[in-house]
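> forwarded from #structure-qc
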């Protein structure tokens, strides 16, 4: 077990991996895809350079997973640049949860069919194994996230530990419900679903919390945030484009309620973000116990 987080490798009865600890990097943009297509492509290219294109072998087709080859890479790049409602999912192995994953769900706010949901956002997510973090160190991963963020006109973003899990299956949810309350610093979410609900609110406190407009202005800006966040390991750094990133220590932390590590700096940030936090209306799966979910959703309150 790493001192900052547990090593989690759980498998289904048929042998496929269904839960592991991971590092997620996500950004949310209240913009139509056609406005940000080139920025998204730059961010995708940055990630592929960092992990290597060989990290991905499969992509989600219309009805099934398909193997990546030179032609499919060209097709996916064209899709990102030209499709008004692009959906992109790349993985190293579709048989359960493994190491690397990439997701992007673009929205078209001007769609003449009237599909403009009030809280939908274009959302991009990158998943890294914790082995990547350990091999390169947190400063290198932080530098990568800043490079990924640089091109994106985000409203918000978060980088931190997550349960990378096959959500929506009874076997997964039973095991996840036993873990999530113990490790409050490990997030759980479905990016595709969240992209229809988040709007300009914040997902919650993470190791790195990115703030864009309008939330940064509504919180009073960088100096006001610095005055409100007193934890010695917390820093607030301005970014170009009237944005900022809040860092909660040098490493992402899972915490551990069994040993009294309840992440006070994460709780402090949750208090400061307050009404700007996204409050989901229910669990991500009908198999997840409602009482456990309620406790998990309010774990930093």
């Amino acid at each position: 077990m790493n001192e900052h987080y547990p090593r989690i490798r759980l498998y289904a009865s048929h042998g496929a991996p269904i839960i592991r600890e991971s590092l997620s990097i996500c950004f949310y943009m209240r913009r139509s895809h056609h406005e940000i297509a080139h920025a998204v492509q730059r961010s995708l290219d940055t990630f592929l350079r960092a992990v290597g294109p060989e990290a991905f072998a499969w992509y989600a087709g219309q009805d099934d997973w398909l193997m990546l080859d030179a032609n499919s890479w060209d097709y996916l790049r064209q899709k990102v640049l030209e499709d008004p409602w692009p959906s992109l999912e790349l993985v190293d192995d579709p048989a359960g949860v493994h190491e690397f994953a990439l997701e992007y769900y673009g929205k078209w706010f001007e769609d003449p069919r009237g599909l403009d949901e009030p809280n939908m956002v274009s959302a991009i997510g990158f998943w890294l194994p914790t082995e990547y973090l350990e091999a390169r160190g947190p400063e290198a991963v932080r530098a990568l996230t800043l490079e990924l963020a640089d091109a994106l006109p985000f409203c918000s973003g978060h980088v931190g530990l997550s349960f990378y899990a096959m959500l929506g299956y009874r076997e997964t949810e039973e095991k996840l419900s036993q873990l999530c309350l113990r490790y409050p610093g490990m997030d759980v979410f479905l990016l595709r679903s969240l992209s229809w609900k988040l709007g300009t609110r914040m997902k919650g406190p993470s190791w790195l919390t990115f703030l864009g407009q309008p939330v940064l202005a509504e919180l009073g800006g960088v100096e006001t945030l610095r005055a409100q966040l007193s934890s010695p390991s917390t820093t607030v750094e301005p970014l170009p484009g009237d944005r900022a990133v809040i860092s909660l220590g040098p490493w992402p932390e899972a915490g551990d309620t069994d040993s009294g590590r309840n992440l006070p700096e994460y709780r402090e940030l949750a208090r400061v973000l307050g009404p700007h936090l996204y409050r989901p209306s229910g669990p991500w799966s009908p198999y997840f116990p409602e009482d456990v979910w309620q406790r998990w959703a309010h774990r930093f309150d």
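QC bot note: The radius of gyration is 18 Å. The chain has one domain: 9-295.
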